[in-house]
Give the backbone structure.
Amino acid sequence: MSEKHDNAESVKQKEEYKLMSSWTGISSGHNVPDHGWRIALSHKFSEKRSPWMSPKISQMPALVGLAFRYVRFHRRLKRINRRPCMDFFDQQPLRQIYGVPAGGIGGGCFNRGWRGEFCRWQLRPGIYEFETTSANQFIVCVRRNGETVYQNVLSPNSCPQKGLKSWKWNFPANKAFYHALYPRAWTVYEIPHLGLILTCRQISPVIPHEYQDSSIPAVIFSWHIENTSYHNFQVTIVLAMENGIGTKAARSAKGNYNEELKTDKNCTGVTMHNTHFDKMPYTMTLAGKEANARKVTKCLSFDPTSDGLALWNDLYKDGEFDCADEVSKKTLPGQALGCAVAIQSPVKAKSASDGLDFVLAWDMPVVYFGSKESPSYRRYTRFFGSDGDAGRKIAIYALENYAKWEEQIEIWQNPILSNADLPSWYKSALFNELYYVTDGGTIWLESSKPDGGSKRKSSSSVTEEYLRNSSIIQEYGRFAYLEGQEYRMFNTYDVHFYASIALAHLWPNLELSLQYDIAASILQSDATRFHFLMDGDRGVVKTPGVVPHDVGDPEDEPWKRVNAYFVHDTASWKDLNPKFVLQVFRDYYITKNKEFLTDMWPVCLTVMAMSMKHDTDGDGLIENSGTADQTFDGWSVTGPSAYCGGLWLGALRCVLEAGKVIGRQHEAEKYVETLTLATKSYQDKLWNGEYFNYDSNRRSNHSDSIMADQCAGQWYLLASDIADVLPHEQIVSSLKKVYEFNVLAFADGKRGAVNGMRPSGKVDQSSVQSHEVWCGVTYAVAATMIHKGMVHEGFITAEGMYRSCWEDLGMAFQTPEAILKHNHYRSLAYMRPLSIWGMQYALEHISETSACTEKSD
């Protein structure tokens, strides 16, 4: 980036924060960082987008059959009380409310919105309840000289339509702001007439290269109270919670109850026992820690559907709760139950009180997927037990260790945040897009065989059983996340290709664990016959020897029954097999785990042999079939193509390199000639002197379109320090063409990279996907540019994407798969945008390369 660009960014950031101060009247809260996503609680987004629904008239003929078959499929599932893993009749509306999710990785989570809502619950593995629980609120009570002078819910929202009408709502929205830097968040409230500034810091244990605490299902809310007045106050902060997620269905469960938290660790709180989810009882433990002059009290039970007057008056009377009960009554069906914990602290004039610490920990140790066939145990049970009483232990552990978590988070983040060469928006995008690692329907399980993995086998006899019981899975567990919160498929592999760099860079052993599961699924077969909806053809669900599209639907039995995807028969997709080989070698390059590469070797040879069948003319290059047989599953492609052909060249090159690493050159030799032939054919059939054509079908109206993602295969080679397949000049020329047309010539360069552009400078409208901007693809293209030295262009490309979604459209913490130029989006909260970590990896990679070159010189 140029110095001029850096200065402009700095000025823009200062202007934005100055404007924020004028909105809120607050100069700053306590220890709120300079970088991140900041928004006033009074902010209103001007643009209200809706889910993409209807294609253009010219695109409809290709979709008529799919639409007809989908309607029949949807009705058939509805009759048996099932939902399709992609429900196009129940797309989520854009709720411009979300903030940093709470909790570690894979233990279930919920979102806490930027206006304070507890919302978007994912306690069942991979299943979301898009609900806001009204009773879950922070309340402040301020007393002076023995009298309460102020008491208010710390929410700018109005009183709920049902219940809690005696509580005082409508905190002035222009006197508060929210700041997100995942995995932490800050909310700052000002009470001007009292001279008080309250800062709530939210901390979750998400720590790179850490595989114990990162799995903990807990969140800390630590409050700092600054008193700028000349009066002494007693300030009480309360966290009220409903037992459950507040829905009618959740309240239909009977037998829920609250129990006093008993501990010798100076903690006071409540454990909420809940039976709502079939065969998966869980607890949520809410507690505060007494220290110095702080006093913690509890309200063991209240009715969140009542007017709330009893709780409100109890607090108003003396700033604390009067409760001697140890256990509440158990609920009957339809009854709601809540609790609250209060921390009271003196705050002297012109001073501050720090460390009013709340913990919320949840414990659902045993989980079942939708088919209820067999139980699984969450990762954290290895450290806290699986008998259902871990909530207390987790809560105490979190209170005692969160300072260490923050120190580790800052050690990780500060080198990036303090790098003056990086723009502020990028620092926000990089860390905040990582929310999906927690909030992507993520499940992190213990291995089903805790007594150790299978005995070591030679690479020529690796089996599905051996792969599923590898030492990596035994040590680090099994990991899965959804393609999207609306696209309910675990570990969708064509999309994970983009997102995987975040895991490989930050939690590499989770990436290796996922790869072992994919490798085992490649060997798996399922002869069940299914009518695929795109063309109506009937085929088997899983063909052995090919990469699965996904490892299953959480409403069924993932890993056991793979390929929940129902649109295409992905056994014939041209990108999945090469993507496996590319990811395996990239992961080896990052981890240097030769045992992993050796285990993957026979599986790589298997998928390469299967892909060779797609080379129908013997020129070494695979051909697409004329359908949408790759991750762009609505954009047809015929013959050799820039995207799949480039992936194939990269996979061929990685097989040769892997063979050298593990001493299997003799097995890889046959691919030497294939690579030579394929490279020549790729250039002859697709290179037009400026970029690689979309495909080689001269009879189509889009074969010479400029595809934003045409260099995807080269991205992986560059990330693996391999850059000798296609000429440097051709890759740079292609990327410059993409930058000029797909980025700058589209939406004034402020929307990222549109998938397809015509050489005339018009958007490719040939399909429902060619005119979309895919957020994750944009970040991946930016990463490829950076690898090739086009750092400025890469940042401009990515900036348009981030500012569109987060600042203009209100899509914070729900970055979608796709946005259109105007009006619409598709599939909120999607896996692919994790590819932004490819940009950071590229920056670090070129920095290391430069350092090595200088040292050599």
